[in-house]
Design goal:
Strand content: 15-25%
Distance between the termini: 32 Å
Shape: globular
Helix content: 25-40%
CATH topology: Creatine Amidinohydrolase
Largest sheet: 4 strands, antiparallel
Number of strands: 15
Number of helices: 4
Structural class: alpha+beta
CATH class: Alpha Beta
Radius of gyration: 17 Å
CATH architecture: Alpha-Beta Complex
């Protein structure tokens, strides 16, 4: 069932989003060669608990960690690990924060040390594609408008759009209807309505869009070992421009 959030519910989600933004800004300071994603995961869990929040995805369908940490050719749901990040890696840290029942979800791809020009370009196009999708996320538009904007932009830049994982509604639980694909046709799909809260989270690959699953049953990676980047915001649909709850530049 698709729910439209009340003003109070959105205010609670904004509190979670504000804390999530703080966490990402702290992670940005930590990212460097030699750091491990397990160290980042431990930091995130401690930071959230110190601020009266919990990592919503820990325990979700048996998931063991506060974050997902996906490196290079891993598309999403990578496990935090004790392997040290290397100079030139790219790593996506994805998490959901719960503050008194209000949820916010955001992923960010970070460059580790000196990333090559192709990696920087992948990250830049992926971030731009997120905002291309957000521009279409308003009352009266359709889900296909979001996906079409992302797909046409990313593919014109020479990249591919992952099909197997999508954005989603959020609140009161982690994954709510509707699904928000990052590809599609304009004017198609469910009509967006004021008060809906969704995530847009394009995963963009250097090579082909197809993915394969690791034996752990969680981690998806590219089939051709091309790198993948992802950026995600939680947004509120309004009559005008959407409200980006997890915006980092406020």
């Amino acid at each position: 069932m698709i729910t439209r959030k009340s003003k109070r519910e959105i205010e609670e989600m904004q509190k979670a989003a504000d804390l999530l933004v703080l966490v990402h800004k702290e992670i940005a300071k930590m990212i460097k060669p030699g750091v491990t994603t397990m160290e980042i995961d431990t930091f995130v869990e401690d930071f959230l608990r110190q601020h009266g929040a919990t990592p919503e995805q820990k325990g979700f369908n048996g998931y063991k960690y506060a974050t997902c940490a996906s490196i290079n050719d891993e598309i999403c749901h990578g496990f935090p690990r004790k392997q040290k990040l290397a100079d030139g890696d790219i790593v996506t840290i994805d998490m959901v924060v719960n503050v008194n029942g209000g949820l916010a979800d955001s992923a960010w791809t970070y460059g580790v040390g000196d990333v090559d020009s192709d990696g920087k370009r992948l990250m830049g196009v992926t971030l731009n594609s997120l905002y291309k999708g957000i521009e279409q996320a308003r009352d009266g538009n359709r889900i296909g408008d979001i996906g079409h904007a992302i797909q046409t932009y990313a593919e014109a830049e020479g990249f591919s759009v992952v099909r197997d994982f999508t954005g989603h509604g959020i609140g009161p639980t982690l994954h709510e209807e509707p699904h928000i694909p990052h590809f599609g046709k304009p004017g198609k799909g469910l009509r967006l309505k004021e008060g809906m809260v969704i995530t847009i989270e394009p995963m963009i690959n250097e090579g082909t869009w197809q993915s394969k699953m690791d034996n752990n049953g969680w981690t998806a990676r590219t089939i051709d070992k091309g790198r993948s980047a992802q950026y995600e915001h939680t947004i509120v649909i309004t009559k005008g421009a959407p409200i980006v709850l997890t915006e980092q530049n406020r």
